[in-house]
């Protein structure tokens, strides 16, 4: 793996035995914990993670958590569920996301590591393809070039990085703190005006002003997300 993978799990729901932690850490994983569901979601909004490990419970709390992860935050990374025997049928239905998978107890540390490696590697391969398209936009990562209707757009390096992030992950909610760390490499609570200024410039240069098929929406007290508008919204 090109960089140390980061895994996030709920400590209250899945209390790792020491062999599990040792297996992941020895393999180069950075292990983070969510003290509760809200704390996990806050970390997921502010940081970049390669894998979530969640304890599976067939109840409303798990359903609510998955809705927050997949629907509200639009996080598209892999989830590894840990479950008891007898719940395989339900988990096959839940693991509809391309990268999701599950393990049933008892679990061997090497098995957990093997599953984690596969999920992370598969997701990274898909997310780091050199070229991709979204509607009228074509993005060439190697050339650091975004084109609109086959016409190259003049962007600064930071504008390209920001635009490529939004266009690769439509619907994903990004906090200003996350963007500062991801795009600028700044990991502290300073003024986020730099982010706001770049988003404003990006809207103009990419022609994402809310009157077309896309918009970069400001989500109050959270950050930004790229949204696909319905046709009626786009022409309103």
UniProtKB/TrEMBL annotation:
SUPFAM superfamilies: C-terminal effector domain of the bipartite response regulators, CheY-like. One of its GO terms (molecular function) is phosphorelay response regulator activity. This is DNA-binding response regulator. The keyword Thylakoid does not apply. GO terms for cellular component: cytosol; protein-DNA complex. GO terms for biological process: regulation of DNA-templated transcription. Keywords: DNA-binding, Phosphoprotein, Two-component regulatory system. SMART domains: Trans_reg_C. It comes from the Bacteria. The keyword Phosphoprotein applies. It holds the Pfam family Trans_reg_C.
């Amino acid at each position: 793996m090109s960089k140390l993978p980061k895994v996030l799990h709920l400590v209250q729901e899945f209390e790792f035995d020491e062999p599990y932690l040792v297996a992941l850490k020895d393999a180069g994983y950075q292990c983070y914990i969510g003290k509760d569901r809200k704390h996990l979601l806050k970390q997921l909004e502010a940081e970049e993670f390669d894998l979530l490990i969640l304890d599976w419970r067939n109840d409303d709390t798990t359903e609510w958590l998955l809705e927050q992860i997949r629907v509200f935050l639009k996080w598209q990374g892999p989830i590894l569920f840990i479950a008891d025997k007898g719940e395989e049928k339900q988990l096959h239905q839940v693991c509809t996301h391309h990268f999701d998978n599950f393990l049933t107890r008892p679990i061997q540390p090497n098995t957990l590591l093997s599953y984690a490696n596969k999920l992370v590697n598969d997701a990274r391969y898909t997310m780091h393809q050199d070229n991709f398209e979204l509607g009228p936009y074509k993005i060439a990562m190697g050339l650091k070039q975004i084109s609109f209707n086959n016409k190259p757009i003049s962007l600064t390096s930071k504008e390209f990085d920001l635009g490529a992030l939004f266009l690769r992950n439509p619907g994903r909610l990004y906090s200003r703190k996350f963007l500062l760390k991801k795009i600028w490499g700044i990991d502290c609570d300073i003024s986020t005006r730099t982010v706001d200024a770049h988003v404003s410039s990006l809207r103009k240069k990419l022609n994402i002003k809310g009157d077309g098929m896309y918009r970069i929406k400001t989500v109050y007290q959270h950050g930004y997300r790229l949204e696909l508008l319905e046709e009626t919204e786009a022409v309103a």
